[in-house]
Design a protein that fits this description.
Layout (H helix, E strand, L loop, with lengths): L2 E2 L2 E2 L4 E12 L2 E12 L2 H7 L11 E11 L1 H5 L6 E16 L11 E14 L2 E12 L6 E11 L2
Antiparallel strand pairs: 1-2, 3-4, 4-5, 5-6, 6-7, 7-8, 8-9
Amino acid sequence: GARDAAGFIDAEVTLAEVHAQAVFRGLQLRALAALGWLGDSARISAYQGGTTPVVLGKRTRGAYAEVAYDVLALLAPGSAQALSPFVRLEDVDLHHAVAEGLARDPSNDYTLLTAGLTWEPLPTVVLKGDYQVKDTAAAARSRSERVNVGIGFVF
């Protein structure tokens, strides 16, 4: 492991999460909340070196909730395919707490709103596209938007 002038850096990582999922006919609901702790975050941040090292949070938190509906369950009952529009809201804070003496970066506290469409032509293949808006808690309240596309295969 890494060492600094004080000795071995104990970068112990602890994660805790709780999640739930429900499916009823074509409706799909999902939610997840997570907390994270990083040991020796101040020393790890300093160890990176450079003139402005990246500050790592000693505590992080995040959660999301998602709603989707398989319209093919209604339009083509019994179909092996699925076509699901969805909306997901995420809230993340990677600097929920930082080590004493380090500055919390409010741009690491943000929400994401995502709306998209998932198509499963086969039970093992998924094609997905979405539009995402990200708002940060920084004083300037920056907003960014992007479009994502993806393909997945289960084997």
